[in-house]
Amino acid sequence: MSTLTRRERDAQKMKDDILAAAREISNQEGFGSISIRKIAHKIEYTPSIIYHYFANKEEILEQLLQSGYLKLTTSLASSKMITDDPEERLRVMTRTYIEEALKIPEEFVIVHSDSSPNVTKHTSFLFKGASEKRKAIHMIKKCIMDMHPQEEWEEEMVELTAQSIAAATMGVTLKLIAESNLEEAQRKKIIDYFSDEMVVRMAKHE
Amino acid sequence: MSTLTRRERDAQKMKDDILAAAREISNQEGFGSISIRKIAHKIEYTPSIIYHYFANKEEILEQLLQSGYLKLTTSLASSKMITDDPEERLRVMTRTYIEEALKIPEEFVIVHSDSSPNVTKHTSFLFKGASEKRKAIHMIKKCIMDMHPQEEWEEEMVELTAQSIAAATMGVTLKLIAESNLEEAQRKKIIDYFSDEMVVRMAKHE
Amino acid sequence: MSTLTRRERDAQKMKDDILAAAREISNQEGFGSISIRKIAHKIEYTPSIIYHYFANKEEILEQLLQSGYLKLTTSLASSKMITDDPEERLRVMTRTYIEEALKIPEEFVIVHSDSSPNVTKHTSFLFKGASEKRKAIHMIKKCIMDMHPQEEWEEEMVELTAQSIAAATMGVTLKLIAESNLEEAQRKKIIDYFSDEMVVRMAKHE
Amino acid sequence: MSTLTRRERDAQKMKDDILAAAREISNQEGFGSISIRKIAHKIEYTPSIIYHYFANKEEILEQLLQSGYLKLTTSLASSKMITDDPEERLRVMTRTYIEEALKIPEEFVIVHSDSSPNVTKHTSFLFKGASEKRKAIHMIKKCIMDMHPQEEWEEEMVELTAQSIAAATMGVTLKLIAESNLEEAQRKKIIDYFSDEMVVRMAKHE
DNA sequence: AATGAATGAGACTTCATTCAT
DNA sequence: AATGAATGAAGTCTCATTCAT
Asked: Which of A90, C78, D17, D64 is the most exposed place for a label (fewest CB within 10 A)?
């Protein structure tokens, strides 16, 4: 794994520092006011040097978004095996998703409000067949099917259900981010109720 | 109707042009990169003149947001009566909301992604007691209660359910907007399935 | 005196209003931030109309300074006959000068700091022979001479004394303006002491 | 002496150039119309680069004022000893002050016309207790008291006298600066008469 | 690898002024 | 006599980026 030279490791460290600084600014002042100068100031280097590690500002922002999205999906992935009970799995997944997203609010909003092909290419999940292309949808679908073992859902319905659950969860998350003033207790109640109750109801058919 | 002088009409036209230009920029490059200069360039005037019609940039942005929000709520309000069956009412409301929002996609995104107090003051609905302060939440709550006539839900649970439904609907809507490339048939399926099936499931407890 | 038509009287009134507004702005925000727009706003007219009464901003500022200087010298002139006692007359003149100047602080500073010929043409008084060309110096000189009836001062010395007194008084005034935070009691003491004691000492030779 | 690297020296040179340009503008058009753009134009650079050397415009103006004030007070301090005769000391001090001030006319005017707290914080001397806080006032007071050895002045009166003398001297100086056209002979007479005669009269009580 | 100097574009805003009505 | 629309210049400041060292 560590076939990197010291130089390469140093460079990677620097890149990470830059991205970390950018992320910090994004969280404090908003994604839109990330600036090379502010990053430079935060890492205590000159603006110029940043161009040694990134071609331009855009590249930084892109990687920021990507890493944000990545963190989300990986954290989601890691939460899957916890339990065999599909209902419980669905609960945990939902909660994990919301909580992880709340850690990178700005990136989350950007990623999910942006409708440029460049972004939706990675983030879209409403298209037909998404349960095969999108890991998250796939995982939800699996939960749903495991919850109704003997019955047979129509394939399409299960996918639509999974997609609805994903979109709904995203909606709750976005709203929680937008309403950042919400009292902590209420915030907790919303998260609990949505992931423990609502999601399960959505996943079931009578 | 026309108690305005020509002057006033011209002035109103100019204001509208400015707002239209701003809206267009917002759609093309994002809300955050609206600038007085760009607006001026689009309407083929000097930046200065804009200050003849608006006190400052903020006023423009505010009016932009307001007009977006206004269109939505009025369209929602007008859809409320229709039928006595609460389940059917919930279905229609959801569908109406989604369809109306899709008619003003840009404004919708702006209004629901913005977390500045100025905006959330009007758009927040996750707070405790929202079912009394927010007409939409109230209407959803009423549907839920009418669907379970003899039983008594705990008040708080009903509100949380209504809030979840609202947030979920918003999430689906936003996702539909972001995925503007979605095939028409699939788009229709998502809307149908979500408003006809999912929302009803969310509103029911076993 | 009133050979003015109504139109002319109205016009004069407007001019006065404009100058009054300008003066007010000068006192509140400083001479340097007088602007046509602010004046217009204050008199509740459009900026444009101001150009009906004044050729441009400069003309307004000029008249403002002139009127300020005028008020000062006329107020000074009017204070001369109060008493026959030359010592008392000098005291009153000094005090009057300071107090009147403090009513138009900005204009006073401008007028007396400006070294452009256009201004010094009116305000200079250190030149040889000033006691004949400048009313104020003349008046001070008269006081001094009346205070030493039988003796004969050398003409030149009296003028130099008068000039020194005038410059000194101006210095005290300027300093009082610059130190606008001075406590009221202390301000009063300075004025009292300077006009009652110091000026008289300056005017006397042993 | 030269512990500065070439870089640092260059930077200092640039700073000095900027300040010099600002000073020049101040002399030509007045302190109030110093602008970043004008400075940039004078030094033949872009406005932006100025922010490389100064945080903002205010910092430039501040340093301008400070350097002016500094030059004066240091020159005054160095003139204090000379003789034991208090009357003679007062004469020399006054003359020195005037002559030094005339060497830096622009800065002198700026410093003594500005009434912003930032400046008066250093330059005010009319406040009660100034003879303890301000070296110049203290030195004048000492002269006065030494001139009346056995008698006892009321403390307060001595301070007021010293303050009056300082303000008067400042007034004469300002006037000499404003009347820059004054003939050399007359200028000399004014300075001589004021510092040799008037100041001494002011310092004495009968 | 890193710096500091420099630019040019652009941000918002205020202003004096002109002109048609 | 008065207005409102419009301009163009100027104001301060921030930014991304390049380049010589």
From this structure: C78
